[in-house]
Amino acid sequence: MKTKMGITASMVAAAVLLGLGGCGDMSTRDKDTAIGAGVGAVGGAVLTGGSAIGTVGGAAVGGIIGNQVGKQR
Prior knowledge:
Elements: H1 2-19, H2 28-47, H3 52-71
């Protein structure tokens, strides 16, 4: 089970990194928000065993944190 979860988290992380490749014209704050949402989604999925609610909740919390971090710069 741990191997399956590790592979899934790695696939999600790879998809997030590839998706961020198209963010060249985004502001720093927008990038921080997107990165926070991606990291939060992976964290939420890992902590809740792949639950959709945990993934979406993690993405929301991560996006908010990333947005606020970007605001301070």
